[in-house]
Amino acid sequence: MTDHELHTLIKKDLSSGTAALYQQYIRYVYAIVFRLLRDCGTKEDVEDCVADTFADVFARLDSLEGADLKAYIGRAAHNKALNYCRVLSRNRQHTMPLEDVPEVCGGDLSSHAEERHLKQVLLDKIQLLGEPDASILIMKYYFGRKMSEIAGALGMSTHTAQVRCGRALKRLRKELEDWR
User: Kindly report the CA angle at 71 between 147 and 2, in degrees rounded to 5?
Assistant: First the structure.
């Protein structure tokens, strides 16, 4: 079914239109989400992310009139999976057995708050770099993945991923200089 046919069906009957859209793109969305979450999430996380992706797409159906559905849905799935991966990794880092938790010794709360703010600013600046540069930096420096794994996940050669990473770091440095 073409995008035009899907748009027409959605206008005629929202229920059958969304069902047809779901049937047409479920495998595509699942493949994208699985590729990004396979190392940091469970099968349930993948299924939740796929469901959330379609919920977001269905919520924006009115604004998608005439849009390339496959491109929009693919980008929505990619962004949703990256957010899931970020949250899952953040939660995993903060989970440890109670006996391993260090005792609180009067730490400076303002320095922790400032550090969290700086991390958020850095993530925002990385997102401004666009894709695939943002994904390369996040996978390399936040998730500690090897460049060959990143290249495979993004469908490019290792050399290309390394070059893009270097260029993205230069652009990020420039963005952060302007920020100060």
Answer: 140
